[in-house]
Amino acid sequence: MMRAALMALLLAAPTAGAQQKVSSGPGAMLRGLDKVSGQTVDVQVPTGDTVEIFGLDVALGDCRYPSENPTGDAFAYLTIWEKGKADQLFDGWMIATSPALNALDHSRYDVWVIRCITP
């Protein structure tokens, strides 16, 4: 709960005295890692869709980026659960430049945001 409050503050906080404008992209590029085999995979996910990355289902709620610098950073709202199970492993914002700030905690798999898809 504390992480969610921190993430909300970071997304809403003004920078250098001026509010930074953000835009929502039509999707996100995510990277998955199987820690056992060392295999990685990059997956493009449209906003509102769910994709399978190894043994995980990943749903993208939104992907936001700075309007002035679309390649500068990405903030993606993800919901992640194991295939065939109802319990969520992760539900919140991930930041591309700071993946450890709010990361998926899974013994075998890892998922992180690479960038937003821009129009």
Textual characterization of the structure:
This protein has one helix and eight strands, in the order H-E-E-E-E-E-E-E-E. The longest helix is centred in the first third of the chain and has 11 residues, at 2-12. The chain has one helix at residues 2-12, and strands spanning 22-24, 27-34, 40-46, 50-53, 56-66, 75-82, 88-95, 109-117. By secondary structure, the protein is mainly β. The radius of gyration is 14 Å and the shape is globular. A hairpin with a 2-residue loop joins strand 4 (50-53) and strand 5 (56-66). Strands 1, 4, 5, 6 and 7 form a five-stranded antiparallel sheet that branches. Strands 3-2-8 form a three-stranded antiparallel sheet, with no helix packed on it. Residues 13-17 have low confidence and may be disordered. The protein has one domain (2-11, 26-117).
